[in-house]
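Chapter summary example: a protein plus zinc ion.
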Amino acid sequence: MKNILYDYYSKDLSVKVSTAKRAKMKRGEYIGGHVPFGLRKHPSIKNKLELDPEAAGIVRHVFELAINGMKTAEIAAQLNEEEVVTPGAYFQKTHPDTRKFRNTTEQMSWNSTMVLKILQQEMYYGAVVGHKRKGTEVGWKHSIAVPKDEQVIVEGMHESIVTKEEFLKANEVVRKMKSPSSRIARDYPLRTVARCAGCGRALQYYPRLKRPYYLCNSSKYAVETVCCQEKMYEDVINEAVWQALQSLFALSDELSGRLKKKKAALGNDQEAYRLSIAEMQRKLTKLNTDKFANMDRYMSGEMDKTVYLKLRSEMDQQIASLSESITALERKLQAVQAEASDEASTVLANIKKYAGEKQLTNEMVLAFIKKVLITDGEHIEIQWNFSDVFLQYLKTE
Ligand SMILES: [Zn+2]
């Protein structure tokens, strides 16, 4: 059985994003949900952001350190030394009721990924970056439209923390520092799971600052190839993986409810299903034997043709219905077995652990996903870490 639980198709964007929303994005109004560290929603003007002075000061500090030539890891170390509050901890402080960032490492101390994230945030020089929202539905099969066009960037829409020149300068410095084996390249969320759907090989990750992407290296040398030869952009693929994980996380309550409810009756259920299946299989074997016996009788002239045909059609019907019942029961048994196994509890514990996360991390991906097979930027297939039995359990009502 193939673990295809997540079909991902990108169709025409214009169908999905309303023209009103687009117009807003073009006007530079902020319609995204998450506001970057250092900014906050304007108290009175809708769809407008303003500076959050304390956090903005930290952002400014990060840019200055970068412009002075420090590596992202060095900046992180310096911030930790200075005991500067992290974006996660700051978010917790300013939003005490939220679960976001709670118990995550992001809250504890700075790392180079966090520094880089700040240095790459174009909204700090006053641009509003239009969010790429997609129409999604909860469930295993999704249809998500991903915008083909680039992010909408409008400059000068709110007070800036840095100038565009400073922004570009800081990014140039960081880019220069980066060697191919840099920390950033090793830290991407789909590390070890991103595969080419054509040849099955691991995809090469290109950690470009502007827009990182994947390429299948084997496609470079082959004349005729099944591999995608275009850049497969990380943001698009990560978003699909993120949505798939969110769908899984959404099952958490149901999963734990089912787990609790059924655990009690578990032993009895298993035994009952096993007995029923065995009984039905006995009947099935008997039917098949009788069917052949009848055929022998008919061939030898002991049985009339009309009678034989009538019996045969009756038996075929019984055989079909028995086989169906056996399959259904086997599925139920598998579900019960999955509940009996530790896997459901393990998955549930992992869901609880990662459900509050704000962004995709490699650790989180590896906890649930075996492979992400990428055909192109629009078709990906996610293979979960789960056993077939557990997958069946997930799909069982
Ligand atoms: Zn390939």
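Key point: The longest strand covers residues 369-376.
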